[in-house]
Specification:
alpha/beta, TIM Barrel, 14 helices, 13 strands
């Protein structure tokens, strides 16, 4: 076999499935305005690891999602916490009080909260876009790392390193478990990236197109309709983000081309663009954050079906790797 781990009667046994107590090394990303308790619990109940995305939630809203998720599943689930967002200390307090078993942090220094969370028995995973920062996560005491390539949707790394290049580099840099993200939406892509050293995959865009995701139906349909080249990485010198091309993304690109200042860009962005696009369904004036893999997503289906299909395709690829 080309990767670490072994198949079992009902799943897979490796460092990630052991660390999280899950059946399959399939993780649903924490995506703003898309990943609430319904999606997280559905993925966890299907044998993967569901994640509540706290990036679009006030502390009291996140608390409610955690409590509802625990009622909906007896399986492990996690919270994704972007560290640059406000009210982090309140989020941390709620996570500790509710005994959330796993936290995925991102967009910040992993040293800031890792030790505090681990004091309370919480497993900590940090999301990075380079091998250099993967090593910093290991040094900070993280239990695992998500290495996310340039193909991914939403906030992205300035390095523009693709997943295919990033995963082998990160694998060489760290000894702790490694999760791959960016451009993965099938069992075959899962097999390929695990052959390069990943021990699990994190998928975001594929799980956007589910009934359980909280995004607007119009946004989900726009993802399904997206073709190759319909996403663009913009805001590179502010906070890089990959979007579906629309009126808003064109305005941003035009402003960048003209050399707009950071102040001008912040004014152009205004407030609530991501909510306007993904949650409210304004396909022209809102941010439509999604990955390049959207061009290969052709339907909206339940999260459990996605987990099952990805796992079955992964097993097939592992048993017959040359019969694609």
């Amino acid at each position: 076999m080309l990767f670490e781990g072994k198949f079992t009667e009902d799943g897979f046994d490796n460092r990630i499935t052991q660390l999280f107590g899950i059946q399959y090394p399939i993780i649903q990303a924490g995506m703003i305005w898309n990943s609430g308790w319904r999606l997280a619990s559905a993925v966890s109940n299907a044998g993967g690891l569901g994640i509540i995305g706290a990036g679009s939630m006030y502390p009291d809203i996140l608390l409610g999602h955690i409590q509802k998720c625990r009622q909906a599943t007896s399986k492990p689930f996690a919270v994704n916490l972007p560290l640059l967002y406000p009210d982090i200390d309140k989020h941390i307090a709620n996570i500790i009080a509710e005994k959330v078993p796993i936290v995925f942090t991102s967009a910040g220094n992993p040293k800031t909260w890792t030790a505090k969370l681990k004091e309370h028995g919480i497993k900590v995973v940090h999301v990075v876009a380079s091998a250099k920062f993967a090593k910093k996560c290991e040094d900070a005491g993280c239990d695992a790392v998500v290495a996310e390539g340039f193909e991914a949707g939403g906030h992205n790394g300035r390095e523009e390193t693709t997943t295919l290049c990033l995963i082998p580099a990160a694998r060489q840099a760290i000894k702790i478990p490694l999760i791959a993200a960016g451009g993965i939406a099938s069992g075959r892509s899962m097999f390929a990236i695990m052959a390069l050293g990943a021990e699990a995959v994190q998928m975001g865009s594929r799980f956007v197109c589910t009934p359980e995701a909280t995004g607007h139906t119009a946004f989900k349909e726009a993802v399904v309709a997206a073709n190759e080249g319909d996403t663009v990485l913009t805001l590179k010198y502010l906070i890089p983000v990959r979007l579906i091309r629309n009126k808003f993304s064109e305005q941003v690109s035009e402003a960048e081309t003209k050399g707009a200042s950071i102040t001008d860009m912040v004014q152009l962005l205004g407030k609530g663009r991501a909510k306007q696009g993904m949650f409210e369904g304004n396909l022209e004036d809102g941010e439509l954050e999604i990955g390049q893999i959207s061009s290969l997503i052709n339907d909206i289906k339940p999260a459990a079906e996605i987990v099952k299909e990805v796992w079955q395709e992964f097993r097939l690829a592992a048993n017959m790797p040359f019969k694609f």
